[in-house]
Every structure is written in structure tokens, then in C-alpha cells.
UniProtKB/TrEMBL annotation:
A Gene Ontology cellular-component term: ciliary basal body
Any one GO MF annotation of this record: tubulin-glutamic acid ligase activity
Recorded name of the encoding gene: ttll11
Organism encoding this protein: Sinocyclocheilus anshuiensis
Keyword ATP-binding found: yes
Pfam families (alphabetical): TTL (PF03133)
Keywords noted in UniProt: ATP-binding, Ligase, Nucleotide-binding
InterPro entries: TTL/TTLL_fam (IPR004344)
GO biological process, one term: microtubule cytoskeleton organization
Name the UniProt record assigns to this protein: Tubulin polyglutamylase TTLL11-like
Ranges of Polar residues composition bias in the record: 83-95, 677-694
Composition bias, Basic and acidic residues: 64-73
Amino acid sequence: MSDHYERVKIELQQMKEVENEAAADVVQLSTASVSPVPADVSFTARRDQSKSSINGRSRSKSRSKADGHERQVNGKQLPDLTPQKSDYSQGQSRVINEPNLHIKGTARLLKGKTAANGHVESCQRQTDVKCEHHGKEAKKRRAVTVDTSKAKTSLEALKMSIRQLKWKEFPMGRRTACDIYWHGVSFHDNENIMSGQVNKFPGMIEMLRKINLSRAVRTMQELFPEEYNFYPRSWILPEEYQLFSSQIRLLKDNDSTLKHTFIVKPDSGSQGDGIYLIRDPADLRVISGSQIKQAVVQEYIQKPLLIDKLKFDIRLYVLVRSLEPLEIYIAKEGLSRFCTEPYQEPSQKNLSHVFMHLTNYSLNVHSGNFVHSDSCSTGSKRTFSSVLYRLASKGVDIKKVWSDIIALVIKTVIALVPELKVYYQADIPLGKPGPTCFQILGFDILLMKNLKPVLLEVNANPSMRIEHEQEVSPGVFEYVPSPVDEEVKVGVIRDTLRLMDPAQRKQHVTSSTGGGSPEEAIVVETGSDEKEGLADSLPSLCLKQVFPKYTKQFNYLRVVERIATIFLRFLGVKGTMRLGPTSFRTFIRNCKLSNSSFSMASVDILYIDITRRWAGMVPDSKEAGMCLQAFTAAFFYLAARRFKALPLREQVLLLLEVCEGALEGHSEKPRPHRSHTNPASSQSSAPITFSSPALTRRRHRPPQLSAKANTEN
Ligand code: ADP
């Protein structure tokens, strides 16, 4: 990691120099100097809009909703990062006078950028020269074929990437198979793909809906509360409405001076849609028409880190290259999206100020204070490295910030993997022909004032647009090239493709749910340009491998994945995602979990009880039977019954040992993954004494509220 930081520092320095040069050019053109945020910012221009309900946005909504895309055109005290007032005024005059901010056109015109884009242009030129070399080498090999017919809004960045790699694009699809299929929305955008690689995993959209992400993280919080405290306390609506209300009331009764704020997010919403802040459970808008709204209500982080008095968040791109073995890469560069109204801690008066509380680009772009900038280190959307550079210059330990972020990303992916494997096996059953998958995810992360990163959400379809919306005259919006987006996103797509190059993956363990282990992955990992000498001909990879690289540090967390391995074994390969009662009985029998005090009749009652409860919690599921979450709940229950008086984590680990040990004897089925580290070594022989079908509600119990939010510690 240290190399990376050194490089970031050098790159940032270089960037700053280039920027200074670019700024000098700009001065000649515009007479204004560069600064991040307008001075004496007049917050009157769009005040009405910002104060209106957070739901009050309307423009450009349908466009990306239609394709399921995210609508983005997107106790240590910190030093004061707020610039002097004069900086502000300079910034404002830049916004007004800077002619280059008004380049009109589509992304196609990106090639013909003016000198204002000098910085990016020079990056582009360097890339093109390097790509020349790469092209000569590529000629020796068969060009990799990419079906781009379903790429949707990522098309422009994808085309650029393919051009740089000298690969072959099939914009209308191809009769014969392609090596790579680039989908804009989901795995199912093209049906019947029998080979190659698809840039989406089955089930990723479903898993990353706000409720499912919360459930997946909560399961991990039950096992590893300390490790998963990067996710704010959340309640799932409507099922936990009463619980949420009573917990908050209790808290207020105990201490009326406490001022908690909560953010309510619709389950399938994106880009700030339908989000609002509340301070009292009575303000929850639970019903919409005749329907009860599915939503997550979450503790609001009241003390975010501010730059220029503004709240901002970080969009990081993460590549899940394969599930088995698990391979995760993080893009070294990301985006920082800034609010456009100075931040104040929430009060009843400012709860509806969207431009103060929500960092969504798609909202803030409609604020009169939004600053479009051609520079990567100023304006309302900047590169993350420029923010890091700024923090580093104030003495912040950015190495620590980065490693905390890497840990957050790995832990989050580990929470998602178990269910993703179930989706994967349902769509691409073992032994049947089908593609392998990879996916770029968009992690939205907030830095707290104490620099602790907090996970806000993960996007299955992060916007890969390289243009942004701009109001060119009152009420008239156009897409104009966005150098910041291009810089970051083209690199991410190009380097994802490089990592997925079939020639590079020849010796790589195939991505399937059936084989391999993290340890194997370390041994056979070969898939990078560097090892084949291509690094000289292209810019160095912007994607950094973090898993299996950090397997040793994080493998112990993969406990639910081991439960999923058992679940999958009894699920079979029939394309289903639910366990029937017979399969559940077989699981109990094969794992030798029944005995005189836990009869097979009790097993059936357990199955029915828990399956029913989960059917109510996952209302849109069409399939009957026990889902993985229900199986995990049953597993936790069985573990608690058998290994009483131990902490849950140890109970579960011990039961896993019992099950995996028993299943090893059943040679007719594939072995469960023994490669996942299991810290538990002893095993109790205490019989299961299941006596009542009234199961503990442990899995569904949300975290207790304490007077102080632990995410703000
Ligand atoms: P969406 O998918 O609609 O963008 P997010 O979960 O990303 O939903 O929330 C939108 C914005 O709200 C975030 O970008 C962030 O600025 C703010 N936000 C979300 N959750 C929290 C939180 N728990 N505390 C503080 N701010 C939050």
C-alpha cells in the first residue's frame, strides 16, 4: 500500500503542476483565477428549490430510471480546511467568466476539446501514444471482441477504452460469440450467452437494493459488530416501524436533550430520489397511496468532514473480478461530489435543505451554486486524489484513510458474496455452459469529521457517463464533456477490460461457484498486463488488487459464505434459490444434527416457522421455500441451541466445524470449502435440545441505540 501512497503523492504533485500550467492558460483566456467554490456565495438563486422537499426534483428523472441506471450525469480534530474569503470570490468570477466551461456538444466532441481541457487532453495524448505501441503488439494476437450493443450510458467511455486497447467492438452485437459482453443494466440484458464474460453478476441489482444491503451488513454486524461498524444503524420499513418508533421514544424519554436525526431512503431509489430527513418517528411517511413504502431509515451522520464548509462524499469504483476465487480491485482514483450549500448540523429548520445535506450530483447540479470545472481539483465534482492531496497538505494521515476505505470495501463485498453465489448458481448452474462474470460497483462513502469512512450505499450500475448536464441558458440543459468524469471512468473501464482480457486469464482459475479457494487464487494469480510486459505500452493499471492480496487479514470474516456453501450443496443445481423441506431434512441428517431431543418432526416445524417468517420479509419473491437468509437464521438458531452461553460468532463457527466435518464423510457430494480460515478449534458434543418452534428473533433484531452513535465515535 505504501508504494501506492508514494505514487499518489507524486501523481498529485504532477497533477498540481499540470493544473498550474493549465490555470495559467486559463488566466490568459478568462482573466479569472481558479478556486473551488464561489465566494460570498449567493444562496438565493435556487434557494426555493433547495428548500423544497427533497422529493421535489423532477428533471431528467425518467431517462435513467428507464434503463435502471444510477442517474448521475451524473477524537482527532481536523485542521480548518476552509479557504479565505477571497478564494471564494475568485472562484465565483471563474464561474462567470470562464469561457471554456460552456463547451457544448456530445461526448463525440470530446476528441476535439479546446485548450481549456489541456490537462485532460495531454493525458489523453499520452494514452494514445502508449496505445500505438500496444496496438502493434495487439496485432500479433487476435483482437479481443466486445459486444457493446447493450452498453447504454457507458457506451462512450467503453468505446474510448476499446479504441485505446485496439480491441474489436461489435456495436450491433454479433452472431457468433464475443469474448466480452458489456451490459448497461443487468446480467440478463442479453439472454442465452453461453461463453465469454459478462460485466454483470446475476442478482447484483437485487443484492444492492437498500434493504438487502442493510440485511446483508446486519448479518455480519451480528457476527462481527466491531468490524462492521462502518455502516450506520438502520431499520427496515415497514417491518421494523414499531421497533424504530419505540426505540427512539425510549431514547428521548431517557434524555430529552439528545437530538438524533434519521435519513429515510426508499428501497429501490437512487440519486437522492424520495430521500428525506426526520427527527421524530411520527414524521415517517410510511404509506404512499394504498401501498406501504419499503424503505430503510438510517441514523444520519451529523458530523461529516467538510472541505470549504461543504459536505462531500466519495464515489469509488470497485471491480469484483470473480466470486470464486474472490477477487476484488479498487480504482486508485475516484470522484468527490460536493454539496452546494454550506453545511450546518441538522436542525428542524434546515432538514429540507437538500443542497446542504445530500451530496448527490444529480441534485446539486440544479443548484445555482454548482461549480462546473475543467480542473480535477476544483468545482463541485473533483477527483478523490485531489481531495486526498488537500487533506495531506493539512497533515491528515491519508494512508490511514485509504487503508480504512480498503477494509470497508473488502468487508462489504464479503457481506454480499454469500447471496451472490446463490444467484450465480441459479443462473449459471455448475457444469452447464455459460459465461463468467465480473462487475464494476460504485461505492458511496462519507468521511466523518474524525476521518472514519462510513458506507452510504453501493451502486450496481454506477454512472459511467463522461458528459455532464449543464444549464446553457435558463431552463435549457445540455450534455457537455466532463474532463473529470472522463479521466476517472475511462481509466476504470479500460483497466477492467485489461484485467478481463481472455489471453491474460488463461492460467487463471475459472470464475465459477464450484471450485478454487482464496489460497489457490494467490498461487495462480497471473492476470495482469505487468507480468506479460504490456505495462510499458499502456498507462499503469488504475485498479489495485486488494483481495486476495489481503486474504490473511479478512478471510476470517467469511463465515456466512461457509454457511452458503452448505446451503448450495443441498440446493443442488436445478436453477432454484430456495431449499425445499426435504433438502432441509437431508441437511440435518447428513450433518448429524438431529438426535433424541431434536426429532425430524421438530426439524419440519423449524423449517416451516422460519421459512414463513422470511416469506413475509421478502414479499416480492415468487419462489417458495427457504432462502439463504432464512437458512442462515436457522443455522444461527441451531448454533445457539447447541452451544449455549457462547457468543454468537463462536456458536456459529463451532456448528460450521460440526457440519463441514460431517459432510466431508459424504463423498458423493462436492466438499464444502475448507479453505476458509476457522478460528474455532474445539467442538462441543452437546446435543441440540430443540423444544419449541418459537425461534429467537436474534437475526432480525436491529442494533440497540445507544446515546451516542458508534459510527461517530
Ligand atoms: P441514493 O441512492 O438515493 O443516492 P444514498 O444512500 O446514496 O441514496 O443517499 C443520498 C445522499 O444522502 C448521500 O449521497 C449522502 O450525501 C446522504 N446520506 C445518505 N445516507 C446518509 C447518512 N446515513 N448520513 C449522512 N448523510 C447521508
